[in-house]
Amino acid sequence: RVNRGEFPHFAAHGGDCFFFPCRDPARAAELAVDLVQNRIPHQFGLAPEEIQVLAPMHKGTAGVRALNAHLQAALNPAVPGQAERVSRGAALRRGDRVMQQRNNYDKGVFNGDLGTITRVDVDEEEGTSAVMVDFDGLPVVYDQDECGELALAYATTIHKSCLLYTSDAADEED
User: Fold this and answer.
1) Quick one: how far is CA 37 from the chain centroid?
2) Above 80 in pLDDT, residue 135?
3) How far apart are the first and last CA of the chain?
4) Which residues contact 93 (CB under 8 A, 6 or more apart)?
5) What is the pLDDT of residues 62-119, one digit of tens each?
6) 167: phi then psi, degrees, rounded to nearest 5
7) Among 4-8, 67-71, 101-105, 168-172, which stretch is predicted with the lowest mean pLDDT?
8) How many CB atoms lie within 10 A of CB 71?
C-alpha cells in the first residue's frame, strides 16, 4: 500500500503492520530497540540482523545516529579485549551491520550496499587498523583511511533505504 502511495492498514492483533504512536523521541528510540531486540524476533521468528530500522533523519534523539548507537549497544555491545575501529564517531566491531557510503569501483562496492564486519585488526604499535566486511559473500578489506566509507546500518534513513530497495528491485528484474 505504501509503495502505491496509500496509507497502510494497521491490525489490532495478528497482522504484520503495526503503529505505535509515540510523541517522545527518547521513548521512540527505546521502543525501536525493544522491537528489534525482542518483540519482532519473538512475534515473527526473525533474527535482529534481518530487521532494518528506518528513520526520517540523521540527527536527534530518534535519528539514525542515535538509533545506531542504541541498537549497537543492545545487539553487539563492546567486549573487553575485542578490537574495534572508531570511524565517523562510531565504534566498528566484528558483527556490526554497516553500509557503504559512496561508490568504490576498485573494491566493487557501491553506495547503499549492506554488509557485516567479519574482522577488525588494530596494530597499536604501528598505529594501523583494517576492517573486513562481508557484502553478500564478497569480502572487502578497508584500511584505516578507507573506514570513513562505512557507517553503522542497524538504522538508516528512509532516503538511503530507497537506494537499497531500488537496486534490489532492479536486480530481480534482470
Assistant:
1) 14
2) yes
3) 24
4) 72, 76, 78, 79, 82, 83, 84, 117, 120
5) 999 999 999 999 999 999 999 999 888 899 999 999 999 999 999 999 999 999 999 9
6) -70, -35
7) 168-172
8) 24
**Averaged over 17-29, what is the pLDDT?**
90
Nine-digit cell at 46?
A: 526473525
Q: Could you give the CA distance from residue 16 to residue 33 in angstroms, rounded to a whole number?
A: 18
63-66 contact pairs (CB < 8 A, 24+): 64/155, 64/156, 64/157, 65/89, 65/90, 66/29
Segments of the chain assigned E as strands: 53-55, 84-87, 90-93, 97-100, 114-123, 128-135, 138-143, 150-152, 155-157
pLDDT at residue number 120: 96
Grid cell for residue 146 = 578507507
